[in-house]
Design a protein that fits this description.
Number of helices: 9
Shape: elongated
Largest sheet: none
Distance between the termini: 69 Å
Order of helices and strands: HHHHHHHHH
Structural class: mainly alpha
Radius of gyration: 27 Å
Helix content: 55-70%
Number of strands: 0
Protein backbone atom coordinates (compact mmCIF):
# COMPACT_ATOMS: atom_id res chain seq x y z
CA UNK A 1 0.00 0.00 0.00
CA UNK A 2 2.87 2.37 0.85
CA UNK A 3 4.24 2.11 -2.69
CA UNK A 4 0.81 2.81 -4.11
CA UNK A 5 0.27 5.83 -1.87
CA UNK A 6 3.75 7.15 -2.69
CA UNK A 7 2.96 6.88 -6.40
CA UNK A 8 -0.24 8.87 -5.88
CA UNK A 9 1.59 11.64 -4.04
CA UNK A 10 4.48 11.76 -6.50
CA UNK A 11 2.14 11.96 -9.48
CA UNK A 12 0.20 14.78 -7.80
CA UNK A 13 3.38 16.79 -7.32
CA UNK A 14 4.49 16.20 -10.90
CA UNK A 15 1.05 17.21 -12.14
CA UNK A 16 1.26 20.49 -10.26
CA UNK A 17 4.64 21.19 -11.85
CA UNK A 18 3.13 20.65 -15.30
CA UNK A 19 0.97 23.71 -14.78
CA UNK A 20 3.88 25.84 -15.93
CA UNK A 21 3.22 24.56 -19.44
CA UNK A 22 -0.53 25.11 -19.15
CA UNK A 23 -0.48 28.75 -18.27
CA UNK A 24 -2.32 29.79 -15.15
CA UNK A 25 -0.94 33.27 -15.59
CA UNK A 26 -3.43 34.58 -18.15
CA UNK A 27 -4.76 38.10 -17.85
CA UNK A 28 -7.99 38.80 -16.00
CA UNK A 29 -10.04 39.25 -19.18
CA UNK A 30 -9.24 35.75 -20.44
CA UNK A 31 -9.83 34.13 -17.07
CA UNK A 32 -13.16 35.85 -16.59
CA UNK A 33 -14.36 34.43 -19.90
CA UNK A 34 -14.15 30.83 -18.66
CA UNK A 35 -17.44 29.55 -17.20
CA UNK A 36 -17.38 29.57 -13.43
CA UNK A 37 -17.47 26.41 -11.34
CA UNK A 38 -17.81 25.97 -7.63
CA UNK A 39 -14.56 24.95 -5.93
CA UNK A 40 -15.17 22.29 -3.28
CA UNK A 41 -13.79 23.13 0.13
CA UNK A 42 -12.30 20.18 2.05
CA UNK A 43 -13.76 19.62 5.50
CA UNK A 44 -12.23 21.92 8.09
CA UNK A 45 -11.08 19.14 10.39
CA UNK A 46 -9.01 17.10 7.95
CA UNK A 47 -5.88 16.52 10.03
CA UNK A 48 -5.15 14.57 13.15
CA UNK A 49 -2.86 15.87 15.88
CA UNK A 50 0.53 14.18 15.52
CA UNK A 51 -0.80 10.81 14.35
CA UNK A 52 1.16 7.83 15.51
CA UNK A 53 2.98 6.18 12.65
CA UNK A 54 1.37 2.91 11.61
CA UNK A 55 -1.96 3.46 13.40
CA UNK A 56 -4.79 2.56 11.06
CA UNK A 57 -7.07 5.41 10.11
CA UNK A 58 -10.01 5.97 12.44
CA UNK A 59 -13.60 5.70 11.25
CA UNK A 60 -13.97 9.46 11.75
CA UNK A 61 -10.96 10.42 9.65
CA UNK A 62 -11.79 7.84 7.00
CA UNK A 63 -15.25 9.41 6.71
CA UNK A 64 -13.55 12.80 6.18
CA UNK A 65 -11.44 11.25 3.42
CA UNK A 66 -14.54 9.82 1.76
CA UNK A 67 -16.34 13.17 1.91
CA UNK A 68 -13.37 15.01 0.43
CA UNK A 69 -12.97 12.36 -2.27
CA UNK A 70 -16.62 12.80 -3.26
CA UNK A 71 -16.10 16.57 -3.49
CA UNK A 72 -12.96 16.33 -5.58
CA UNK A 73 -14.46 13.82 -8.03
CA UNK A 74 -17.42 16.16 -8.52
CA UNK A 75 -15.06 19.08 -9.11
CA UNK A 76 -13.02 17.00 -11.57
CA UNK A 77 -16.17 16.28 -13.56
CA UNK A 78 -17.08 19.99 -13.61
CA UNK A 79 -13.61 20.96 -14.87
CA UNK A 80 -13.74 18.31 -17.61
CA UNK A 81 -17.22 19.45 -18.67
CA UNK A 82 -16.02 23.05 -18.94
CA UNK A 83 -12.89 22.12 -20.91
CA UNK A 84 -14.75 19.85 -23.35
CA UNK A 85 -17.41 22.47 -24.09
CA UNK A 86 -17.34 24.28 -27.42
CA UNK A 87 -16.52 27.51 -25.58
CA UNK A 88 -12.98 26.49 -24.60
CA UNK A 89 -10.00 26.34 -26.97
CA UNK A 90 -8.15 23.02 -27.22
CA UNK A 91 -4.91 22.78 -25.26
CA UNK A 92 -2.91 19.55 -25.22
CA UNK A 93 -1.04 20.47 -22.02
CA UNK A 94 -4.30 21.06 -20.15
CA UNK A 95 -5.68 17.77 -21.48
CA UNK A 96 -2.60 15.94 -20.18
CA UNK A 97 -2.94 17.43 -16.71
CA UNK A 98 -6.66 16.61 -16.59
CA UNK A 99 -5.89 12.99 -17.51
CA UNK A 100 -3.13 12.74 -14.90
CA UNK A 101 -5.19 14.23 -12.10
CA UNK A 102 -8.13 11.99 -12.97
CA UNK A 103 -5.75 9.02 -12.78
CA UNK A 104 -4.65 10.14 -9.32
CA UNK A 105 -8.27 10.41 -8.22
CA UNK A 106 -8.97 6.93 -9.57
CA UNK A 107 -5.97 5.57 -7.66
CA UNK A 108 -7.31 7.16 -4.48
CA UNK A 109 -10.67 5.55 -5.10
CA UNK A 110 -9.02 2.12 -4.99
CA UNK A 111 -7.67 2.67 -1.46
CA UNK A 112 -9.68 1.02 1.33
CA UNK A 113 -9.79 1.87 5.01
CA UNK A 114 -7.59 -1.10 5.88
CA UNK A 115 -4.90 0.29 3.53
CA UNK A 116 -4.65 3.71 5.17
CA UNK A 117 -2.97 4.86 8.37
CA UNK A 118 -3.76 8.06 10.28
CA UNK A 119 -0.55 9.51 8.85
CA UNK A 120 -1.64 8.52 5.32
CA UNK A 121 -4.99 10.22 5.86
CA UNK A 122 -3.25 13.55 6.47
CA UNK A 123 -1.12 13.08 3.35
CA UNK A 124 -4.09 12.13 1.18
CA UNK A 125 -6.07 15.18 2.29
CA UNK A 126 -3.10 17.38 1.47
CA UNK A 127 -2.89 15.73 -1.95
CA UNK A 128 -6.56 16.42 -2.61
CA UNK A 129 -6.01 20.07 -1.67
CA UNK A 130 -3.12 20.13 -4.15
CA UNK A 131 -5.32 18.69 -6.90
CA UNK A 132 -8.00 21.30 -6.20
CA UNK A 133 -5.36 24.02 -6.51
CA UNK A 134 -4.22 22.38 -9.75
CA UNK A 135 -7.75 22.49 -11.17
CA UNK A 136 -8.14 26.13 -10.16
CA UNK A 137 -4.97 26.94 -12.07
CA UNK A 138 -6.19 24.93 -15.04
CA UNK A 139 -9.37 27.00 -15.15
CA UNK A 140 -7.27 30.18 -15.07
CA UNK A 141 -5.22 28.86 -18.00
CA UNK A 142 -8.18 27.98 -20.22
CA UNK A 143 -8.88 30.28 -23.13
CA UNK A 144 -12.17 30.91 -24.85
CA UNK A 145 -12.27 29.41 -28.34
CA UNK A 146 -12.33 31.90 -31.17
CA UNK A 147 -15.65 32.05 -32.94
CA UNK A 148 -15.66 31.48 -36.67
CA UNK A 149 -16.77 34.17 -39.11
CA UNK A 150 -20.55 34.27 -39.26
CA UNK A 151 -22.14 33.14 -42.51
CA UNK A 152 -22.51 35.68 -45.28
CA UNK A 153 -25.86 36.50 -46.90
CA UNK A 154 -24.74 34.85 -50.12
CA UNK A 155 -23.64 31.58 -48.51
CA UNK A 156 -26.74 31.39 -46.35
CA UNK A 157 -28.90 31.88 -49.45
CA UNK A 158 -27.11 28.94 -51.11
CA UNK A 159 -27.61 26.90 -47.94
CA UNK A 160 -31.33 27.70 -47.88
CA UNK A 161 -31.75 26.82 -51.56
CA UNK A 162 -29.94 23.52 -51.06
CA UNK A 163 -32.23 22.79 -48.12
CA UNK A 164 -35.32 23.46 -50.26
CA UNK A 165 -33.99 21.22 -53.03
CA UNK A 166 -33.22 18.38 -50.63
CA UNK A 167 -36.65 18.73 -49.03
CA UNK A 168 -38.42 18.40 -52.39
CA UNK A 169 -36.35 15.41 -53.48
CA UNK A 170 -36.73 13.72 -50.09
CA UNK A 171 -40.53 14.07 -50.21
CA UNK A 172 -40.63 12.69 -53.75
CA UNK A 173 -38.47 9.68 -52.90
CA UNK A 174 -40.33 9.01 -49.64
CA UNK A 175 -43.67 8.95 -51.44
CA UNK A 176 -42.41 6.71 -54.25
CA UNK A 177 -40.68 4.36 -51.84
CA UNK A 178 -43.72 3.98 -49.59
CA UNK A 179 -45.98 3.38 -52.61
CA UNK A 180 -43.64 0.72 -53.97
CA UNK A 181 -43.92 -1.40 -50.85
CA UNK A 182 -40.25 -2.31 -51.25
CA UNK A 183 -37.88 -3.02 -48.37
CA UNK A 184 -34.36 -1.79 -49.05
CA UNK A 185 -31.88 -1.02 -46.28
CA UNK A 186 -29.66 1.09 -48.54
CA UNK A 187 -32.56 3.31 -49.56
CA UNK A 188 -33.65 3.63 -45.93
CA UNK A 189 -30.12 4.60 -44.90
CA UNK A 190 -29.91 7.26 -47.61
CA UNK A 191 -33.31 8.66 -46.63
CA UNK A 192 -32.38 8.67 -42.94
CA UNK A 193 -29.16 10.55 -43.68
CA UNK A 194 -31.01 13.12 -45.78
CA UNK A 195 -33.64 13.54 -43.08
CA UNK A 196 -30.96 14.14 -40.44
CA UNK A 197 -29.63 17.04 -42.53
CA UNK A 198 -33.15 18.45 -42.90
CA UNK A 199 -33.65 18.26 -39.13
CA UNK A 200 -30.31 19.94 -38.50
CA UNK A 201 -31.02 22.72 -40.98
CA UNK A 202 -34.44 23.30 -39.48
CA UNK A 203 -32.80 24.47 -36.23
CA UNK A 204 -30.36 26.87 -37.91
CA UNK A 205 -30.72 30.59 -38.40
CA UNK A 206 -28.26 32.91 -40.09
CA UNK A 207 -26.93 34.22 -36.80
CA UNK A 208 -26.21 30.74 -35.42
CA UNK A 209 -23.91 29.26 -38.08
CA UNK A 210 -20.44 30.16 -39.27
CA UNK A 211 -19.33 30.52 -42.88
CA UNK A 212 -17.28 27.33 -42.69
CA UNK A 213 -20.09 25.27 -41.13
CA UNK A 214 -22.61 26.60 -43.65
CA UNK A 215 -20.40 25.62 -46.57
CA UNK A 216 -19.88 22.14 -45.11
CA UNK A 217 -23.59 21.62 -44.48
CA UNK A 218 -24.52 22.83 -47.96
CA UNK A 219 -22.07 20.38 -49.53
CA UNK A 220 -23.39 17.51 -47.40
CA UNK A 221 -27.01 18.28 -48.31
CA UNK A 222 -26.14 18.58 -51.99
CA UNK A 223 -24.49 15.15 -51.88
CA UNK A 224 -27.54 13.69 -50.12
CA UNK A 225 -29.83 15.24 -52.75
CA UNK A 226 -27.73 13.76 -55.55
CA UNK A 227 -27.95 10.33 -53.97
CA UNK A 228 -31.72 10.57 -53.56
CA UNK A 229 -32.07 11.66 -57.19
CA UNK A 230 -30.27 8.50 -58.28
CA UNK A 231 -32.58 6.43 -56.07
CA UNK A 232 -35.67 8.17 -57.47
CA UNK A 233 -34.67 7.16 -60.98
CA UNK A 234 -34.73 3.49 -59.99
CA UNK A 235 -38.01 3.45 -58.08
Amino acid sequence: MKKKLAAVILTAVMTALLLTACGGNKDAEQSASVPETETPAPAADTKTDAPAEGDMVSDENYKILQDNYALITEYAAQVRDIYTSDEIAANSAIEEVILQTEDIINQMGELEQADITEEDAVTLNETMELIIETYDNLLDGMEVAESGEMVSDETFAVLSETYDTLTDIYNTVATAYNDSGAEDEDIKAAMDEAYSFLEQMGEITQDTITEQDAEGLAEAMAAAAEMLEAIAGNL
